[in-house]
Amino acid sequence: MIPIDLTGRTAIVTGASQGLGAAAAGMLHRAGANVVVNFFDDDQGVNREKAKTVVESLQNRTALAAGDVRSPDELRSVFDHAAKQFGGVDILVNNAGILRDRTVAKMTEDEWQSVIDTNLTGVFHGCKIAVERLRDGGRIVNLASVSAMVGTFGQANYVAAKSGVIGLTKTLSRELARRNITVNAVAPGVVLTDMGLSIPEAARTQMLAQIPLGRFAEPDEVAAVILFLASESASYVTGQTLHVNGGWWG
Questions:
Q1: 72-86 and 122-133 helices, crossing angle to 10°
Q2: Structure confidence by residue, pLDDT tens digits, 2-23
Q3: Active-site residues: which are they?
Q4: Radius of gyration from C-alpha coordinates of the chain
Q5: Left (φ > 0), alpha (ψ -120 to 50) or beta: where does 243 sit?
Q6: What are the residues whose beta carbons fall under 8 Å from the beta carbon of 220, sequence distance 6 or more?
Q7: Strands 89-94 and 62-66: what pairing?
Q8: What pLDDT score was predicted for residue 195?
Q9: Local structure of residue 62 (DSSP, 8 states)
Q10: Which pLDDT does position 1 carry in this prediction?
Q11: Among 52, 103, 117, 160, which has the minimal tally of Cβ within 10 Å of its Cβ?
Q12: Which residue in 32, 8, 36, 44 sits closest to 137, CA to CA?
């Protein structure tokens, strides 16, 4: 067995209060990394409480950092907090995302723009700040989706955003190669998180029928791939999109 050891390295995971973000934070932490759990501070304080639970479950080498990925200033403060707590940042996982599913005919401009702003522009903000703040030899892992490959019905906004993430990943991998910073994307299929379970049951049934492995992913199965890309084991992997979809290709 070859263990992955991230001792001494610091990771920021956006949207880490629940679901895949929380799983990624936990996986990186178990490998020895310092982990900054970022969350969107909603008016009801729900995300804050969930993020606190994540931090409490990890116990040490963690920090809580509110910040809306749609705001460069707020996201920059997350990086500042990480640097203050742990001395710098080595790994960024751009995980924060939302769903506003509707067919194009019925989709409102706000439903389109809100998904683009969070799922694509939010990733751009994270990457741009990482260019300024990430230490040489660092890692950026962006969350894409199988939807970008198959063009999922009723998800034009989501598909467009995740397709953009894949393109952004390829370009940034070239721009940061001279600093030995790798930039990759992970494209999950349906994951058994609150977001995945929010997809209507009828749609999930249709999706499941297209997956050769016959099941949806567990969060840790995707988080393990994020961990690999954040590690030295993936030192020669950059500009790639790793598909974690159980064989689902549309």
A1: 40
A2: 789 999 999 999 999 999 999 9
A3: 158
A4: 17
A5: beta
A6: 23, 26, 27
A7: unpaired
A8: 77
A9: E
A10: 67
A11: 103
A12: 8
Q: Which 3 state secondary structure label does DSSP give 239?
A: coil
Closest CA to 226 of 7, 33, 1: 33
The domains of the chain, with CATH numbers, are 10-242 (3.40.50.720)
- Which pair of tokens denotes residue 243? 């598909």
Over residues 116-141, the pLDDT tens digits come to 999 999 999 999 999 999 999 999 99
Is 124 within 8 Å of 168 (Cβ atoms)?
yes
Give dist(CA 94, CA 160) in Å, integer.
17
Distance CA 120, CA 138 (A): 21
Residue pLDDT, tens place only, 131-173: 999 999 999 999 999 999 999 899 999 999 999 999 999 999 9
Q: Give the pLDDT of residue 72.
A: 98
The pTM (predicted TM-score) of the whole model is: 0.95
For the beta sheet containing 241-244, the strands, ordered from the edge strand earlier in sequence to the opposite edge, are: 62-66, 34-39, 10-13, 89-94, 134-143, 182-188, 241-244
The pLDDT, as a whole number, for residue 206 is 84
Q: Which residue has the tokens 């389109």?
A: 112
Q: What is the mean pLDDT of residues 84-95?
A: 98
Helix axes 19-30, 219-230, angle to 10 degrees: 50
- Residue 203's contacts (CB-CB under 8 Å, 6 or more residues apart) are 153, 154
- DSSP E strands, 95-154: 134-143
